[in-house]
Amino acid sequence: MKLKIVYLLIVFVYSIPAFSQDPEVRSRFERLDELIGANSFFDNHLTGFMLYDLDSQWVMYEKNSHMNFIPASTTKLLTFYASLLVLKDSTITFRYVNSGKEITIWGSGDPSWKYRPLPQPKLREFFQSFDRINFSLDNWKDTPFGYGWQWDDYYFAYSPERSAFPVHGNIVIFTNRNKTPVPDIPLFSSMLVRSDKEIRGVQRDFNSNSFLYNPSLYVNQFSTLPFITSPDVKVKLMEETLGKPVNLVKGKAPSHAKVYKGGSLVPLWREVLIESDNFVAEQLLLMVSDALFGELNSERAIDYIKKNYMSDFPDKPQWVDGSGLSRHNLVTPRTMVTLMTKLDELMPRAELLRLLPQGGISGTLKNNYAASRPYVMAKTGTISNNHSLVGYIRGDSGKFYAFAFMNNNYLNRAPEIRREMEKVFQYIKTHY
Question: Residue 418 in contact with residue 378, Cβ under 8 Å?
C-alpha cells in the first residue's frame, strides 16, 4: 500500500503540467496523451515514454515510465556512460613488461587492431624492436559470447566473439573473385570447404573455423563472418599480422606493467553510438573492466558501475552485456532519461550531440526524422518485436528535452512503429 501511494504521488507530480493554469501547457499535454496514451496506436503493445525538460527539470509527459523494457541497442548508452566515467579519453590497447629484446603482453580489450572502421594503433612499429613476443590470456575472465545471446547468431557479422586482444574485429570478409571466395585474412584461405549445401554465399561451421561454399551456387559479392577466437587462432593471427613468432605463455600481469595507449576513444564512441557496432560496444565494456580491475570481466565491470555510479537512478537496470544483443537486459524509461541527464552533465552538450545519430543525417537515424535542421539526436535499439529510441529532441523554441520512447512485444512491422513515433516527435518539435 505504501509503495502504491508513493507511485500515485509520482504520477501526480509528473502530471502537474496538465493541470497548470496555463491553457497552452494543458493543451500540449492533452495532445500528447491523444498520440501516446489510452486508445492510441501505442495502446496495442507495451509502450513506455518520458519527456523531460533539461532546463526546467520538469517531466512534461510520461507513460509507463516505471516499467521495465528490453532496451536492445540503447543498452550501448549504458556502456558509453561507463567508459566515459572510467576510461576518460583514451584507449588502453594492452599491458606489457619488457626486458631487452623480449616483451610479454596482456590484451586490454581494445577492438581497433586491423578493424576497418577504426583508426589503427601503430603496433607493427611498436613491436619492431622485439625478437621474442609472449602473449598471456591469464587476465581473460569472460566468455566469447554474452549472457543470453542467441546461439544461432554465431555466423552473423553483428555477433562476433569477444576477446582480450582482437585482430580484424574478430571477423573475416570473403570477396567473390571469379566465383571463388577469397578471405581478407590469409590464415583462413586453407579453411575453405566445398559443399553441396543450398547456400549462395559463405557459411561457417558451428564448431570450427571451416568456411563452406557451394561452387555451383556461389554468387554473393561479399560474405562477412565471425571466426572462432581460440588461443591457437589468436596466436597465428598475431604472427601473421606482425610478421614475427608469438608465444602463448602463462602468468598474470604484474602491478608494475606498463600500458600501451592506442588513441582517442572518440572514434570508438562514434562507432558504438552512430553505427551501433555491437563488437566495439562489447570490447569497450571489457576495457572498462581492465581499467578497473586489471582483468577482463564484463559482469564485474557492470556491477561496479551500477553500485558506484547508478545508486541514485530511479530504478536499478538489469544490465548484462555491452551491446544489447541479450534480451535479458531490462531498463525503465525513467532510468534511461536519468542516464541522458547524467551524460548531459558529463560533457558539453554540443560534443555529446555529435556522438549520437541525427535524424535524417547520420547513422541509424539517417532515413528517419528528417527536418531542415536535425531535431532528434538519439540512440536506436531494435530487435525483433522491440524498438526503442533514447536521446534528445530539440523543439522549435530552441529548448532541449531528454526522452526515452520504448516499445516491446508488438506484432507490427518496425517501420510502422517508427512512423507513429515520428508523429509524436513532430508534435513535440512544433509545440515545445
Answer: no
* CA gap 122, 370 in Å, rounded: 39
Q: Which three cell numbers stand for residue 251?
A: 602468468
Rounded Cα–Cα distance for residues 184 and 194 (Å): 18
Q: Where are the beta strands (DSSP E) in 12-79?
A: 46-53, 59-63
The fold of the 2-71+330-431 domain, in CATH, is Beta-lactamase (3.40.710)
**Averaged confidence pLDDT in the chain:** 93
What 3-state DSSP class applies to 133?
strand
Q: What is the pLDDT of residue 368?
A: 94
Domain spans of the chain, in order of start: 2-71+330-431, 92-264
251 Rama class: left (phi>0) / alpha (psi -120 to 50) / beta: left
Residue 417 CB-density burial (10 A; 0-12 exposed, 13-18 middle, 19+ buried): buried
pLDDT on residue 331: 98
Q: What is the DSSP letter of 84?
A: H
pTM value is 0.93
Whether residue 124 has pLDDT greater than 70: yes
